[in-house]
Each structure stands twice: as C-alpha cells, then as structure tokens.
C-alpha cells in the first residue's frame, strides 16, 4: 500500500489514480500493487499533490519594469544583428567552436589549448 497522506491531492488526481488502479486490478494485479502503481503513475504525470505555488515573493513594480526594459533592449539588439557580449557568448561556446574561431584567427598552439586558454587567446587576438 502506498505510504503517506493523499489529502494534498486534487480530486482529479484521486479520480485518475482510482481509474488506473481499477484497470490494473482488471488485469489481475494484486490490489496493493495496483494501488501503488496507480499513485506512482499519478505522481509521475503531475509531480505529486497540490503545490503551494510560487516563492511567496512578488517582484516590485520597479523590478518588473526594469526587467521588461532589459528584455526589450536585448530584443532590439538582436533584431539589429548585434552580437551579445563576446565574453558571455564565448563561455557558452564549445571547445570545438572556439578552436574553429582560433583557426580562423591563426592562433598558434590552439589544438592543445583548453577551453579557458582558448578564450584568453581569442580575447588577446581581439
């Protein structure tokens, strides 16, 4: 039998578990096993009982406005084809793409460099 209280589950989750349990019982699975499988399936599909929703902290109006402006600024820069900050984008690139960029700039020793070394070499090469 499944452990724990089912009080935090919604009516829909309880109905779904009951239906799944009945289908397993119809297939000949023992009642305890059918119930355990049913609740495991409900938990897998919905993540468990009702969640308390959110962190409890709301953003201030100023923070929301600032975030919207920043998002709009990034979107406008993207539309204009401007790259993001090169340091940030290089940290997210793969070593292979960094090596390809180093090859294009003809940086010596690139094939034996580690990621951070490639980033530094590319930064120096400008």
From TrEMBL:
Biased composition (Gly residues): 46-55
A matching Pfam family: Rho_N
Annotated InterPro entries: Rho-like_N
Compositionally biased residues, Basic and acidic residues: 9-36, 56-73, 97-126
Region entry Disordered, spans: 1-126
Domain spans labelled Rho termination factor-like N-terminal: 92-125
Protein name listed in UniProt: Rho termination factor N-terminal domain-containing protein
Species: Pseudomonas ekonensis
